[in-house]
Amino acid sequence: MRLDLLIRGALLVDGTGAPPRTADVGVAGGRFAVLPAGSGADARETLDAAGLAVAPGFIDVHTHSDGIALLGGDRELVRAPVLAGVTAEICGNCGSGLFPALPGRVPELRAEASVGFGGDVGFWEDFAGFAAAHAAVPRANHLASLVGHGTLRAGVLGSVDRPATPAELATMCSLLDRSLAQGAAGLSTGLIYTPGTYADTDEVVALARVAARHGKPYVTHLRDEMSRVEEALEEAVEIARRSGAALHVSHHKTAGKYAWGRTERTLPRLARLRAEGFDVTCDVYPYTAASTHLSAMLPPWASDGGTAALTARLADPGQRDRMRAAIAEGVPGWENTVGNGGWDRIAIARAPRHPHTEGRTVAELASAHGRDPFDVAADLLLAERGEVMIISHSMVEDDVRRVLAAPYAMIGSDGVPKPGGRPHPRWAGTFPRVLGRYTRDLGLLDLATAVRKMTGLAAERFGLAGRGTIADGAHADLVVFDPATVGDGATFAEPLLPPKGVHTVVVAGQVVVRQGEETAARPGKVLTP
């Protein structure tokens, strides 16, 4: 049989964690064939990869890329992960996505989603509609999606701060069940974000039971990643135990000055749970800065009723004073990012109508104009109709390294690709950064372990059968890189610069990146575990 592609003489890092070895890797009909080095196999295209490594395509287990490919036009954003070797993205994280909802609420949610993504991205009643929309848009890599609890809640109750009625909860469970049956990858929560934060533990348990029936994981942005991170982790464990769902902790971190160093307690707790047979994993990105919405810096009640209600409160001096006091004094059960760090750690990443603010901290903007930082933030939110992205410099390096080294931790960028602004460099830089800085330069991980965290471990957790390893008959998604030079190029000043040392990326047997440049091939599809 003549191969479509032969990668000859590469260091094969197969995604299983096995020691690397020299081999030839063939591709035929979108599937792998692993051959002895120097096999002499015949192929339509041959890549001499001596001195390079070949690995399964990287699986980004945590993205917010739900709508960016549907907007069109911003190729730099869409191609950034592909240039970094990412052959599959998992979106719908942190409780937020573009489906599902009751039909009557779709127009309202579509309007909210379009504001958030900076364009008309649509909104769908279920996973099938979402998948069909993406299938109609040519893409270079694959996409899978979780079902967001916050989206479910907004799609049934609206963005309101109250418990779900039994009938509403039953409807949420039904919508979740339908989307999971159609191929969504699991249930996600973002319990610091509205409207997810308005839900109690019992509500999430009921939904996680639905995920458990489908054999799919409960994936959670904990209710607190700062001073109450251990308490929030125990809530997640309780939800998983009561529901029977496997637990996956999103972007595990201990952020804010009151939580620095707490990974010395959270990670041993996770290790003990695993030793007892509890199915728990996590993901991590290799940076000490996070990124989210500026509105998440406000107390949860500020967003009760949605964006229109938030902007009305921001325009009310009395409501502003309440918010200011809440940040200064804290609110029971609320992760208070500014109170745990300060406005000097909050930089504006995206404010389309005020680009001059991007890249500057709220404290810097306030000082330049002799104003109170909270008022600067509030005015910017009001002027941008609630849609401002920030970068929060809230972590320390020792905690990041500890999570990266945990054997059950996989890699997720937590990338939030939206047109314009200065996004976090993790969208373009995460995977090459792990291979360069943390594997080659610091020796925190060996190469086989690092690749497994990006590939085989991720595929196992999210049910991506036949992916994540290079083995005979597996799906031919792969990346060829130079272990001696691979590294991130993206910076906070220039967040979409391509990586170094990533030579070739193959998706479904087709070359989508050749010699570091994107090709015209668009073989990506929507994956349904």
Total strands: 21
Which strand-content bin applies to the residues? 15-25%
Task: Give the fraction of residues assigned to helices.
Answer: 25-40%
Largest sheet: 9 strands, mixed
Q: Average pLDDT value?
A: 95
Whole-number radius of gyration?
22 Å
Unreliable segments (pLDDT under 50, ≥5 consecutive)? none
The CATH architecture name of the largest domain reads: Alpha-Beta Barrel
* Superfamily (CATH H level) name of the largest domain: Metal-dependent hydrolases
Structural class of the helices, strands and pairings? alpha/beta
Shape: globular
Helical element count?
17
**Overall structural domain count:** 2
Distance between the termini: 30 Å
CATH class of the largest domain, named: Alpha Beta
CATH topology of the largest domain: TIM Barrel
Give an account of the 3D structure.
This protein is of the alpha/beta class. The protein has 2 domains: 58-292 and 394-464, TIM Barrel, CATH 3.20.20.140; 303-388, no CATH class. The protein is 34% helix and 19% strand. It is built from 17 helices and 21 strands. It has helices at 68-71, 75-83, 106-117, 127-135, 149-156, 166-182, 201-213, 229-243, 263-275, 307-314, 317-329, 362-369, 373-383, 397-405, 426-441, 447-454, 456-461; strands at residues 3-12, 21-28, 31-36, 43-48, 53-56, 58-60, 86-91, 142-145, 147-148, 187-190, 218-221, 247-249, 280-284, 289-293, 346-350, 389-393, 409-411, 478-481, 502-507, 510-514, 517-518. Strands 1, 2, 3, 4, 5, 18, 19, 20 and 21 form a 9-stranded mixed sheet that branches. It has a 6-stranded parallel sheet with strand order 9-10-11-12-13-17. A 3-stranded parallel sheet has the order 6-7-8, with helices on one face. The longest helix has 17 residues, at 166-182. It is globular. It starts with a strand and ends in an 11-residue tail after the last strand. One of its GO terms (molecular function) is hydrolase activity, acting on carbon-nitrogen (but not peptide) bonds, in cyclic amides. This is D-aminoacylase.
